[in-house]
Design brief:
TIM Barrel; globular; alpha/beta; 226 residues; 43% helix; 8-stranded parallel β-barrel; 18% strand
Length: 226
Amino acid sequence: MHSLLITSARTEREMAEATESGAEILILDAPPVAAFASVRVRRPQGPLLHVRVDALATAAELGSIVAAAPDGIVLAGVEGRGDVLRLSAMIAAAEAIAGLPDGAIGVVALIATAGGVLGVGSLPDATPRLQGIAWDAEALAASVGAGSPRDADGRLIDLCRAARSQCLFTAAAAGVPAFDTVYANPTDGAVLEAEAIDARQQGFAGKLAVSPDQVPVINTAFGKIG
């Protein structure tokens, strides 16, 4: 999977734009069941649908999400093995209640804090549900007090490149794909393209996007014409 589009999709139009962007995975922020249904009807063969939650998500919240049968859950702010194990246990309980097969819903760990960078090495073999590891440069820079994750030319600063490498190494050790951070400026296609090509060359399987317009750039950079 090369392109993962993060979207709130709060309106039918936004959902349609996200669905038709060419993204292979849509990452939605805890949408209602109706949001899933509208996408399934429009494109029953794709894209895959994931929901983003944080490590403080409750069992009740997870229950309503799992009942909608997403393809996966993106856990934001992971700081180590314990976070993933806790989420996995709650998903398993919710799957049983919803009548879904055990293990039907996978987990993508999203590293967004300094603690997460230090703890990401504990993720290999944490759970068979682990489907991938991603990272968030903007949130990570904020967590250590950096003014911006990028320099004046748009390149990632050293601390972010170190975190990027750590996530990539861990994903390789875990045998799951690594997904590169978003490029937050949706109008600067040239820097996005360069960063996506670099990510592909470094070994990332795909890259997060924050705008439907970014998806074709990412798909092309990773060798898929969207």
